[in-house]
Amino acid sequence: MSNEDERIDRIRKADQDWVNVIKMTPDQKFEIIRNAVLNYDTGTIDPLKNAIGVFMIGEHLGWKVLLLMHNQKTIQKYEKILGVKFCDIFPEVGAGAKRSIAWNAWCRIQSLEAFWRVVRGEVKSVKSAIIHMIT
Question: How far is it, in rounded angstroms, from Cα 106 to Cα 52?
Answer without folding.
Answer: 26
